[in-house]
Design goal:
The chain has 92 residues and is mainly beta. The protein contains no helices and nine strands.
Length: 92
């Protein structure tokens, strides 16, 4: 099975990497100036695509490390709890 996810601006959210339908975890995505905000239905390992490594990423307001999985593919840890999670990706 493959997921075809259209590119969206500076950051394209993929969703939770450990889910069969990873994109279903994304509740909402919007851009606000130089940041992209993604609201997830729950925590987990969130993956996204970006042409350049983000300047910073915050999960529920706290800075987190960004793992570079492959050229343009990044992942951040968003905890394991249930309930909405807000990911803010700051880009140049």
């Amino acid at each position: 099975m493959y997921l075809l996810i259209p590119r969206q601006g500076a950051v394209t959210p993929i969703g939770l990497m450990d889910k069969y339908m990873s994109t279903d975890a994304v509740r909402k995505c919007w851009t606000n100036g130089r940041s992209t905000l993604v609201q997830l239905k729950e925590g987990g390992d969130f993956g996204f695509v970006s042409a350049a490594k983000p300047a910073a990423v915050r999960v529920n307001g706290e800075a987190v490390e960004v793992a570079d999985l492959a050229k343009g593919l990044y992942e951040v840890k968003c905890g394991t709890g249930s309930g909405d999670v807000l990911v803010e990706i700051l880009h140049d």
